[in-house]
């Protein structure tokens, strides 16, 4: 190919860069340079099918620049493939099941099947019995939960069957029993009221306010959509392995939130237990509005319903107090007294015709297994927000119950698997008109105490629920509502004992107690959802504020110990500081929020005069006996300087260990009193093993400051700069900074971020004792051999290094505030 043709080729490629990658080919001459000649030269650049594309290397031979837009498709695909290859390890770490085979993924997603391989036939009776008992308990609570959520009382029967079927196969917990929970329905009630205000401010048709029946029908229609969104959010969080976010919900927030939910449900049931029909109340302070309604309508109390409620409450309380412990001790059985009473009162209602006498009953409805329907998701952001909140609340309650139940002998609970199981249960149940569900710890304890060994008990409970839904309709319609309300009051009142922990919490930490009280007060005076948001916000804010002003402790040497170190604040009577060496402990991560405060606090303590009364443990004279090391001796050092200059921290630490009696060292010269320079003036320390101890007492200033980083854990780039500023400013004042307990991720961070430019690598130690021993060795005579000869070790090399300024962090006077 001639030069003119080549120029035309390049001009054509430049004129249409987007298509040039498909129409530019290697000529026979260029192929010949690469030892190839089999591809024929195309006759027409525009119409011939593409052959081999010019590479960037070949184009450079002709002095042509490679246009990024004109890169061949193969190269573009290679770049995309390389990018995907870089993302793949991240996805394997962060996506649930991405690092497992398909068989392992299915096994981990459905733990029930893998557990059945080790299941014993002797466990079947207990699982069946526990399933029936738990199913009966769930049945007695479902009507009360439906009333709290302001949906039709009988619509809650669906949650007994469908969510539990999925959860039984996918749950990592052995004892959790999924179903209705007061925490979920109390939060759902607030969300349904908010959606109603947003979309139906003037009623269903905009002309009149909806009746309570119309409100319940509307809420029954909206609730499955919220459950679907909650499940979708939980599945996404589970696949992204974000189950650890459970930790942001402090127990000091969740416990008062749970109590506020319980009290909201109790206050809503009190009027119904006395025969009053309370209106559906939304807005703030619902609990007090229900109590006000009850007190202002005392004259309308139904005597028959009050009598039924009293009979129900007295029977349950007496049975729990006297008979249930004996039955459980003898037969290991939790008797479902509430379910038995439900059956008895339903029979009495049928025989005495309670409905005809004005006593409220559940009433009839269309029984049978419902057909699946797609939930309505057309309520926009209010529904989405409600779904996100319910996802967090139900997951928190379910995981908390699973962890408590698994403390004894259960296999470990997987937070991500619980997210997936609960999410799939919500999505599946939403197609059968189910509202959000959870697994309260009460039913789980019953399941565990009954001797259940697997989630087969949940499947049995679902079978029982299916029988009830399909065939028990004619009997359920006679159940008195006052009995349902009384049962919920008795059940929830058992959880109010958590108030006893508040005085103990206040004595232990008044900040956490204040968060507890504020969460509960907002949940009661406003609503439970607002209380949850306020509690989480205040809890995180208090954590941030406390992390911005972390504590820096001064450590000292404990008397009569071999390098025992403790905080002076708590052990001032038995601990004191060493002369010339000050030990400071940073008790929090070092990050952008507290970097400035730590710089000032550390420097103030480093430059502050102090009383040094501690005497370092003396070395035995045999520790440095003159001997020649064997060939297999790992400590092949001939001088003390070699020991303390060793890169191995274990060698440096052993240099002052009393147990070290065979370290091969040969002293180099003899002195009696060695002058050591401390901040300019020259101070003389005596040989402790030959004459007297160093001068103690009075005010001293440190020449070496050991920073105990054992409690730091994490340090960001701003924290690294803060350490650099501390080291740089301290060096100007002739104080050397030494870092101790830098291990694991913290050590890698310090090395990767090049802190050694200002803090030398030899000033980073894996233990406080190691750092203190080396600091003392740099401040005075290192060792005393058996023959009285001593090793001089004055490290002046550090002071000869230039001071490196830290950009953006000026030097300040730390004695002025």
UniProtKB/TrEMBL annotation:
PROSITE patterns: STAS (PS50801). Its main location: membrane. InterPro entries: SLC26A/SulP_dom, SLC26A/SulP_fam, STAS_dom, STAS_dom_sf. Keywords: Membrane, Transmembrane, Transmembrane helix. It comes from the Eukaryota. Pfam families: STAS, Sulfate_transp. The keyword Disulfide bond does not apply. GO terms for cellular component: membrane. It is a multi-pass membrane protein. One of its GO terms (biological process) is transmembrane transport. It is found in: Membrane. This is STAS domain-containing protein.
